[in-house]
């Protein structure tokens, strides 16, 4: 038998337990509505977590700014790591329609038209937010986005040209990304770059170039099916490891030169020490691949990327904190 509602008890009336309809459902959607706005495949293929692998360039650039604006630095972070990079990932997945493992995803879902529209919206938002920083920053963003699209778009498809595609990636994800962060986070935003900063931009591209071929090492067959010959395919599995070791060594030498001319010797020594686990894992992995090429697989590649990203992020954050403490 139901218990009648009494105004003298602390029980709520039955109608009070019923959810009230929102007066503005279109403006204030519920969590379930937000979740249903995008398909699972769209969210997955944007690969927000993959932005972590590109984050060291952000911290490197930020560590070299003497007078930085943290509100602008945060805005730059949001634009690059939550909008531009994920949109680039999503567009690439929309064009590739990979069935095998890709960077950061072992079993990617198939893209839909929604993914394409989502990347376009994200890019537009990024450019408009970029205008809040400066016109130059917005133009830099646009150049990055266009290069990313040219890399993946079937009508141009820079990625099918191993050397040109490789140079496009390391130039924009390295030097241009550094420039965007440096310009966008500085107070005031510089329009003329010191010569030593140009050296830092070169080092950023070399750091990307020293690891990017490793992300392709397990995808040779999948890429060939799609008509793509990557720099890693040209080098071969063992050749990729040798090439990466050479480029990474050159990158550290350029970094050392940059820190030397910037009078940041102890900062470089700190960074190099923090990066030691990367060298140890790389040499161990290379040794196992020399014995068994099957070890050049998705799992080991992701471990390499994760260790390198963690150490690089920690290293450049440590350099930034050390520089800020010495002001």
What is the end-to-end distance?
75 Å
CATH fold label = Farnesyl Diphosphate Synthase
Number of helices: 14
- Overall strand count: 0
CATH class: Mainly Alpha
Question: How would a crystallographer describe the biggest sheet?
Answer: none
Helix content: 55-70%
How many independent structural domains?
Answer: 1
Please state the second-level CATH architecture.
Answer: Orthogonal Bundle
Could you characterize what this model shows?
The chain is an all-alpha fold and 327 residues long. The chain has one domain: Farnesyl Diphosphate Synthase, CATH 1.10.600. The protein is 67% helix and 0% strand. It is built from 14 helices and no strands. α7 packs across α8, α11 runs antiparallel to α12 and α13 packs antiparallel against α14. The longest helix has 28 residues. It starts with 30 loop residues before the first helix and ends with a helix.
Short description:
The chain is mainly alpha-helical. Helices cover 67% and strands 0% of the residues.
Question: What topology does this entry show?
Answer:
Blueprint: H1 31-37, H2 40-46, H3 51-63, H4 70-96, H5 113-131, H6 135-152, H7 162-185, H8 195-209, H9 220-225, H10 231-235, H11 237-261, H12 265-274, H13 276-291, H14 298-325
Helix pairs in contact: 2-5, 3-4, 3-7, 3-14, 4-5, 4-6, 4-7, 5-6, 6-7, 7-8, 8-11, 11-12, 12-14, 13-14
